[in-house]
Amino acid sequence: MSKFAIFVTVKIKEDRIEDFLAQAYANATAAVRDEPNCHQFRIMQNADDPSTIHFYEVYTEAGSLDHHRETVHYKAYDAAVGDMILEKSIVKSNVLQ
Asked: Is 39 within 8 Å of 18 (Cβ atoms)?
């Protein structure tokens, strides 16, 4: 059975990048540590545009992402970063290898 992944791209206000990253790191660390169905959570910063951040998250199945969004750490992240994000896109995919 293939795993489920998302690739998230967010554009952050330039004066809030460090604040955003601190919240993202806390969420990613807690997700991998506390959620058995979260297998990877990588945070990447665009080399040409530091205000563009990418997340690569791998879960056991699509429902595991729903569970992630109900956790205390995700809700804290979501509440903290709402006014920092200018744009957001999410690509959902199945991991083939």
From this structure: no
